[in-house]
Design goal:
globular; mainly alpha
């Protein structure tokens, strides 16, 4: 864990702002703006880029991916810029992640957090972030399952942190990884049953 140098009051402000930023449902906003319908009634109903791809619009999916990743990165970078401490940066990242998973605007039913997870680590330590992105990409290309790529990338976070940097990010990585696995519980069930849709495949 990082050294706590930011006051509790400022950490609370950081957490609230990070949560609000993370809770912006870009998938829904992008699909609505592009006239693609209500994302929650498409495919799995998830608000992330993988489900946006099921609309058949790759541009919308890419925009959602970048925006969902970007809000995690912006939360971290803004907290670091405003308060200067890695404690604030990590709190902002965690709060943004929780905002994406449990957005107040959608009755606390949000996405699975993969893009936001990657964006957070790109901002916290670019070496770890790039390693996670490549892990996700290679796994996705090989398996054609977004869920497997997400689970393997998340599980690898601790190993990449220990190899590429010090252990100050390890606790955050473990918490975020656990949340990723919790949010992918239905995917794990479908993978075991052989009914998990592959990337680009419409869920039936």
């Amino acid at each position: 864990m990082p050294d706590f140098v930011t006051s509790q009051g400022m950490l609370l402000v950081t957490a609230v702002l990070g949560y609000l930023l993370g809770s912006i449902p870009f998938g829904i906003l992008v699909t609505r703006t592009m006239g693609l319908g209500d994302l929650r009634s498409i495919g799995s109903g998830n608000i992330g880029a993988t489900n946006v791809l099921r609309t058949g619009n790759k541009g919308a999916a890419l925009a959602t991916l970048l925006l969902d990743g970007g809000k995690g990165a912006v939360a971290v970078l803004m907290a670091r810029w405003l308060f200067g401490g890695e404690d604030a940066a990590q709190v902002a990242g965690l709060a943004a992640f929780l905002g994406h998973l449990f957005p107040v605007w959608l009755g606390f039913r949000g996405g699975k957090g993969v893009a936001t997870f990657l964006g957070i680590f790109l901002a916290l330590d670019w070496r770890v972030g790039i390693a996670l992105c490549l892990t996700w990409l290679v796994t996705a290309i090989v398996t054609r399952y977004s869920s497997i790529a997400a689970l393997i990338a998340a599980a690898s976070a601790g190993l990449w942190i220990l190899w590429l940097t010090d252990a100050t990010l390890l606790v955050l990585a473990l918490v975020l990884t656990l949340l990723v696995y919790v949010r992918h519980s239905a995917n794990l069930t479908r993978l075991k049953a052989g009914t998990e849709p592959r990337i680009g495949q419409k869920k039936t």
